[in-house]
Amino acid sequence: MLEIRNVSKRYGTAQVLTDVNFDVIPGRMTGFVGGNGAGKTTTMRIILGVLASDGGTITLGGTKLTPEDRRRFGYMPEERGLYPKMKVEEQLIYLARLHGLSSAAAKKNAGALLEQLGLTERSSSTVESLSLGNQQRAQIAAALVHDPEVLILDEPFSGLDPLAVDVVVSVLKDRAVSGAPVLFSSHQLDIVERLCDDLVIIANGSIRANGSRESLRAAHSTLRYELISSGDAGWLRAVPGVSVVDFDGGYALFDVDTEATAQAVLRDAIGRGDVATFSPQHPSLAQIFKEVIR
Amino acid sequence: MTTTTTTTTRPPAPSIAQSTWLVAEREITVRLRSKAFLISTGILLLLVLASIVIGGFAAQNAASEKTPVAVVGTAGDAIPSGAALDITEASSVDEASELVRDGTVDAAIVPDSSTPLGVGIIADTSAPSGLIGQLSISPPVTLLDENATNPLITYFVALGFGLVFFMSAMTFGSVIAQNVVEEKQTRVVEILMSAIPVHALMAGKVLGNSILAFGQIAVIAALSIIGLTITGQTDLLSGLGTPIIWFVAFFAIGFVLLAALFAATGSMVSRMEDIGSTTTPVTMMIMLPYFAVIFFNENPTVMAIMSYVPFSAPVGMPVRLFLGTAAWWEPILSLVILALTTVACIWVGSRIYQNSLLKMGARVKWGEALKS
């Protein structure tokens, strides 16, 4: 498990990170969400050792990270970075070797990844000649080519079309399933919602929420229910403990004061006619996000 | 929950030396594949070769060229033996005059009892000065310093060392600065920094480019020595051989110094367009010695100072060695000073590099770049 403990960072007079604490659990995808300038990239750079923190520790499996450990990390920086005039495959081999792979192992990994990401045909093209989407795939390959044990990806999905997103998602899930902790940041909340097992929300340099997706949802759910019935749902307004949020003929979205009120409403609704849908509403990630960063 | 304990199956991480060499290797292969580099090196080598060959021909022509003259009767007695003249015998003054007029000869030497020499010269529009010199009687000259070098040759030797140093340092130096900015601009540097220590990255860059620059200089030096030998300019070679070897030694260390400074100053900017704003001081340190050696190559005091100042020593010391004004221990002392300065510059340079690599956007301020 990768543990980030009490990490702080200050640039001049600006405090960019304050006591950042969270875990990245092996085998799970952890989404890292926050607005621009919230401190995502700074946190990731500190985890990678590219940037020094002013305080706090980062441990992997209980021991403090060393540069040696960090070589086994895979990193994808936010703004894309590869040598524009170097051939894709050559570049991957070079990066793998910098991470300590033998020349043969580097070649083998690079070939396999290019195959997996559908870039085999472009392996001897220069990076600058690739389309944006393909450059992005090459970038992902660069983060994975040395078989990293931990993945830190800054905005891995920005600039990808939906098909490419699926390809990348499947590659990342493979790594997570094989036991690697995967931390990725994204602005695209819908992708994070679909992908992540755990979630870390950061705003103004401090962690606002952190935990599994389900627990966060449960913590922020507001006893809201949706009802779709055959008759007019106007009667709901008169039920004590119910406040209607939205209403249209047989459709109603409403909050209740207790779980028991909801059950009473359901029994009542069935008595009045056919009920097509009666379901508790979970807040979307976007709603949770807005709520916690407020 | 599993913890990652697969460390035992991993190959050991490469050492600093291996990382440095990997970076250096990439710098070298990328450069050797660049057409611009190959073409500019080719042009530089051609220029060196051409100047040697042309110099050789000029020397030979100067030696073999004889002035064609017509000589009438006893006037030939006035010509000193060994004069560089191509003599045509003419039977009379009129015939000799005719030969001058139609251009067969440059001038005619005719008997003329009215002068102390006993001969006169007939020429078409003006008398060839070389001829007059050969027929004149000169007062004996005693040279106090027989080894003094022709100032024109001194100038060209100084210019040659200066130009080669200037060109190599500028081209390779700016390539280093550009590479650093490219890595910063494309953010590839973040991946590199997460894989290997920053000082290995900088050392690899400096090493790779120094090897290339040194290789280029060594080829130029070898080409000069071989060229001078083949074209028979052995006099010049015997004077130049030692200075050239010292030049290569000074260049090898001096370039490492410049490379470190170029890498450091390049890392302070984020865009190619801004390179000039921080690398200018380093560029100046290359240009000033170049101009100084052109203007002051005959001023022993300036040259003596230049031969010890680390930035100009690679040019100043070889010129002084060529002139024979440096004692045997002087290049060694100067080389030690240069080496110590280089170590200091690498230390300062790597600090600037480390502090600046991740700072994007505006140029990094000197104070910020230098802070520990």
From TrEMBL, chain A:
Keyword ATP-binding: yes
InterPro entries given in the database record: AAA+_ATPase, ABC_transporter-like_ATP-bd, ABC_transporter-like_CS, ABC_transporter_ATP-binding, DrrA1/2-like_C, P-loop_NTPase
Membrane topology: Peripheral membrane protein
Domain of life: Bacteria
UniProt keyword list: Antibiotic resistance, ATP-binding, Nucleotide-binding, Transport
Any GO CC annotation of this UniProt entry: plasma membrane
Localization (cell): Cell membrane
A GO term for molecular function: ATP hydrolysis activity
Pfam families to which the protein is assigned, alphabetical: ABC_tran (PF00005), DrrA1-3_C (PF13732)
Subcellular location, principal: membrane
Domain ABC transporter: 2-229
GO annotation terms (biological process): response to antibiotic
Family from the record: Belongs to the ABC transporter superfamily.
Name listed for the protein in its UniProt record: ATP-binding cassette domain-containing protein
From TrEMBL, chain B:
InterPro entries: ABC2_TM
Keywords from the named record: Membrane, Transmembrane, Transmembrane helix
Domain ABC-2 type transporter transmembrane, chain residue ranges per copy: 35-349
Keyword RNA-binding belongs to the record: no
Membrane-topology annotation of the record: Multi-pass membrane protein
Entry superkingdom: Bacteria
Name by which UniProt lists this protein: ABC transporter permease
